[in-house]
Amino acid sequence: MSKETQFISRVEWLEIITDWNPPQDQQIEDPVFSDMEISNFYAPIVQRLIKDQASTRRTEHDKKKPLIIGVSGSVAVGKSTVSTILKKIMESSPTGLEAQVISTDNFLFSNSRLQKDQILHRKGFPESFDHGSIIKFLSAAREGKSDFKIPLYSHETYDIEEEALECRVTDVLILEGVNILQDSPLGKNQSGNTIRDYIDFSIFIEADEAQIIQWYEKRFLDYCANAETDNNSFFFQFKDLSLEDRRTLANQIWQSVNNQNLAMHINPSKRFADLIINKGHDHSISSMRIPSSWL
Fold this sequence. Notes:
The chain is α/β, with parallel strands linked by helices. 36% of the residues lie in helices and 17% in strands. The strands form 3 sheets. Strands 1-11-10-9-2-8-3 form a 7-stranded mixed sheet. Strands 4-7 form a two-stranded antiparallel ribbon. The protein has a two-stranded antiparallel ribbon with strand order 5-6. α2 packs across α4.
C-alpha cells in the first residue's frame, strides 16, 4: 500500500517549518551539506520523525526498542551521505541519541557464492542479498538484544571481508541500502517478511537519472584512481585503462546493471516510503513528498 504523502517545493518546506521551531546552530560539520541545508532541512526532518515516533511508543517495552530508520534509493544517489548526516544530527544536542548506520551491502552474498549461482553480474539485485540474514539481524535489533556480529562488505575489494562487523544496541539504527523497501525476494528458504516490516520510518532519495549517472561515474573514477597502487582493490584491474576508457566502462556498467535494477526494483519500491527527497545537482534538496500528517 502506498503511503499518504504530499508534494512540496523547497520554498514551501521553509514556510512549513517556521511553526516547528527547529533547533538552530547545532554546529554540525559536514563535507557535503551546508549549515543552511542541515538546519533548514535535515534537522527539522529528524526533529519531526523523532517526535512522531515518541508519540507512538507508550509502553516501557516499546521505549527500549531502537528506532529503526530506513534510507533507500539508487546506487550513487547519496544514501550513505544522508544516513551519516542523520546520525550526526541525532547524536548532537538537543537530541543526544546514540545512532549507528548499517548498510545492507553487508548482507550481499560473497562473490564466490554469486559466481557459483551464476548471478555475479546481478550484484545489487534482490536475489544477490542474503535476505534471511537481514531479517534475522533486524529481528534481533528490534528486540534490543545484546551485541552481535554481522558480515562486512568492502567497496574497495568488491566483496565480503573475512572480518566481521561488531554491532551493539543503540537508540537509533539507520539501515541504508537499495533493497530497504522492496518485497521479499522469491526463492527457496527465503523469509516471507520484508525489510520494510521492521522499519519505523523510511526515506527514499531520488534525483534525475542523468545526474545520478554523473555521481556514479565520479565515484567509479575515484575508486579506479585510488586503486592504481593497491593490487588488493577490485578496481586495480582497471589501472591501465585511459580516463576515457574508464568513463566508457562506468557508463556500460550503469546501463547494463544499475539502470535495470533502478527501473525494475528500486524505483517501484519508493511508493512504500514515508518521505521522498528529491536532490539537485549539488545534493541540495529541491523538493520532497512528506507525510500528509506533517502539514
